[in-house]
Amino acid sequence: MTFERPNIAAMQGYTPGEQPAGDKAIKLNTNENPYPPAPAVADALAAVHSEELRRYPPPTASEFRQTAAELHAVEPDNILPTNGGDELLRLVLTTFVDPDETVVVAEPSYSLYPVLTAIQGCQLKQVPLEQGWNLPGNFSEQLQGAKLCILVNPHAPSGHLMAVEVLREVANSFGGILLIDEAYVDFIDPDKGYDSLPLVRELDNVIILRTLSKGYSLAGLRFGYGIGSPKLIAPMLSKTRDSYNTDLLSQRLATAALKSVDHARQGWDRVRASRKKLAAELAQLGMPCEPSQSNFLLCQVPHKPGAKALYQALKDKGILVRWFDLEGLRERLRISIGSEEENSALIDALREILGSTS
Ligand SMILES: *Cc1c(COP(=O)(O)O)cnc(C)c1O
Questions:
Q1: Radius of gyration, CA atoms only, the chain
Q2: Whose CA is nearest to atom 5 of ligand 1?
Q3: pLDDT per residue over 10-28, tens digit each?
Q4: Do 162 and 199 meet the contact criterion of CB atoms below 8 Å apart?
Q5: pTM to 2 decimals?
């Protein structure tokens, strides 16, 4: 006998990427930013007096909302601060999706989506992506009757970027909510001209997920936010979130990080330059990568040694990358863009391993 609800008893939990204790490993497995957060974040941390922790934090993180609204040229009413982007995903499900309603996601994509729909106990429809990680031509038809569609853009784990026009078409033809997960948006080449914010201004069924974990080097802080119409933001802000879902420290540090966006931008430029260089080097080693607009590369692995064995061989050398035991991904590795030194160490290790198995 279990005390769990039937859907909880039946489900598998999320498997996070390995987080080894100590800092010896070269971690290219969870898409963390290789560069430190802005100095203003350290200053904000030093400026907190422990006495301030006696009181509850500002309940709606008003200063952060104001700062994010200015950054995106929207109103504070369009912003919902959350305990990491992951909390926004959970809130959208619990606020808007009944158990008999359907959530549509692309397959493959972020493996947390099926976990969260299983917790909610709602219906999940996974639509396989076509060649080149594009949505199938009849995607809008496949959305018929669904309540929520979650699309990650740039796509994870491929790094493929969908055009805003495609997203607009999906949202326009859809009676439910379109959640665009932009966890990696900061790493898009500026010359792509990608900007999905007009969708939020035009349509009341679009919500965008942003996180400080990747672009702002703050995965340990746990801070993200949603951008959407007040019709979507208000019920989550005033009804379904925990009354103090973001704490005082994270509010102060996240606000400082957003105000120093220019510092973060320098890191995004460096990641983009490293991405280009690393992709070329991997291709030379017989590991071609999908064109990526993100801070990771999804690369093919030669039949010998195969992706799983290569993952293990790298791990034995203290380098962690991500291997997914999933259809369409088993012969690939997802490699986060590290610092220049880390990327060189990876290439050196690969040369050794691949040299000795060929
Ligand atoms: C990292 C990530 C998120 C959000 O992560 P948080 O650390 O909870 O902010 C959301 N979606 C995808 C696809 C991600 O990779």
A1: 21
A2: 85
A3: 999 998 888 888 778 899 9
A4: no
A5: 0.97
